[in-house]
Write a structure and sequence with these properties.
Order of helices and strands: HHEEEEEEEEEEEE
CATH superfamily of one domain: Immunoglobulins
Structural class: alpha+beta
CATH topology of one domain: Immunoglobulin-like
Helix content: 10-25%
Strand content: 25-35%
Number of helices: 2
CATH architecture of one domain: Sandwich
Number of strands: 12
Largest sheet: 5 strands, antiparallel
Shape: elongated
Distance between the termini: 42 Å
CATH class of one domain: Mainly Beta
Radius of gyration: 26 Å
Length: about 170
């Protein structure tokens, strides 16, 4: 039975002319090879020449995905316009925007949408109003900030200022 993937196998070192090889020795190595192949699966290189190349195409040296942009938290206020440089090299980007009263991840809320309240024509929230292959522009409404709802559907707080974070995932 193989040790991998739960542990790294330490094989018995055999010496020519001293040790007698028995079936167990090559069988242990075969079990470990099969365990590695099972863990990796088939065709791990995909359309790349090898697994190392495939990983290098998707993951930067710092361990982060290459085709993802994270603005980090930045302060916002009503009527603000914020230009962020993403350098993803495409306009086919899936965006997510988060709002928080502070610049960490402790109270972050996903911004689901922006809208105009029909009775008062008040603009709420903010939106991504332009993107290029290198930049994205976020505009914040002039009269109302980001409402955050309770499970019952009623706003329990509204952020007219605070912090935003936008995440972009390049789709090509």
């Amino acid at each position: 039975m193989a040790d991998y993937p739960g542990a790294i196998k330490n094989f018995l070192q055999l010496e020519d002319g001293v040790d007698t090889v028995v079936a167990q020795h090559p069988n242990e190595r075969g079990d470990e090879i099969t365990a590695i192949e099972t863990e990796l699966g088939t065709n791990v290189a995909g359309s790349s020449s090898d697994l190392k190349t495939r990983l290098a195409e998707a993951i930067a040296d710092d361990g982060k995905l290459k085709n993802v942009y994270d603005s980090g938290w930045f302060a916002f206020a009503l009527s603000g316009t914020y230009t962020k440089t993403h350098n993803l090299g495409t306009t086919k980007i899936l965006w997510a925007m988060y709002v928080s009263p502070n610049n960490d991840d402790t109270e972050m809320h996903l911004v689901a949408s922006t809208f105009i309240y029909a009775e008062s024509s008040q603009h709420y929230g903010g939106s991504i109003t332009h993107q290029s292959a290198t930049e994205v522009i976020v505009n914040i409404a002039s009269s109302r900030g980001f409402p955050v709802w309770t499970e019952g559907g009623q706003p329990y707080t509204r952020y007219d200022s605070g912090y935003l974070r936008i995440i972009g995932i390049a789709l090509e």
